Amino acid sequence: MLDPERILRLEDDRVVFLDQRRLPGEEVELECRSADEVAEAIRTLAVRGAPSIGIAAAYGYALAVRVGEDPERAARVLAGSRPTAVNLTWALGEVRGASDPAARARALHREEVERCRRMSDHAVPLFAHGTRALTHCNAGGLATAGHGSAVGALRAAWAAGLLERVLVDETRPLLQGSRLTAWELEQAGIPHAVIADSAAAHMMSRGEVDCVVTGADRIARNGDTANKIGTYSLAVLASHHELPLYVVAPTSTLDPSLESGAEIPIEERDGAEITGRFPALNPAFDVTPGGLISAIVTEEGVHRPPYVDSLPLPGGRGAA
Ligand code: MRU
Questions:
Q1: Do 241 and 158 share a domain, yes or no?
Q2: Is 319 inside any structural domain?
Q3: Which of 75, 271, 279, 316 is most exposed by smallest CB count within 10 Å?
Q4: Candidate from 84, 116, 154, 176 with most ligand 1 atoms within 8 A of CB, to mutate
């Protein structure tokens, strides 16, 4: 696995990230010395992926307290950096209430690494011998500061001798799949091939895909799941081809305050990420209805529909 400390860490007077914008070409560190700089790193995707931005925000807050910034302002700036992943506000809530924010942030980091390990193990029985999986975006070590969620499940299936290969959606427009997931799979020695997002239906129709495995940015009580734009399209395609779609995400991605995905805020990014010349609309996430998700895997286990009963939410029947 990628060293979690290499992906992001808190030092005395700075938060240091492996700059994901420069991968896979260059492995360069980015140093942030204020909450504003950490928020900018999150906004511009130097650090990205739901659990990683939660840890980044927690470290940003701890740094702000340490260097004497106004903590309320720092929390506001960090919380406003990206809207969709609930991990960000969740992690900020955890450190804001802590007597030692740096210690709590470091503990959160270790806990996310452990959550990844547990959910990867839980996911293994979902794979049959010779599985050919398709994944979207990057839900690996870069995105989770650990083993990975969706990629963690793929790593565990590979280690168990069950995985044949992975198709990696390139993930328009910022190529988290072809730049980051392919880089991680290459390092793990897992056979893979990048495909254009628009090739997924064709590959499914030719019998080249056995299951779809993705991460998540926010999961509502009913299992509706926000993830990288294009995940919903894959879910519809998987349903049409009678293939299972599995979401692998830690409980820090569950949002017990939301009844359904209709309430999930969807980030609209600059159209310049798509085209420099014409008007563009650039929603960064979409919501896959829980009804199209065969199982949601958290560190607590494998949860099946109806999710309102099975997810480990406070007060739910699936609660740990
Ligand atoms: O815009 P990004 O790259 O932060 O989007 C990330 C995703 O959509 C991931 O699939 C999600 O955060 C899960 S990461 C374990």
A1: yes
A2: no
A3: 279
A4: 176
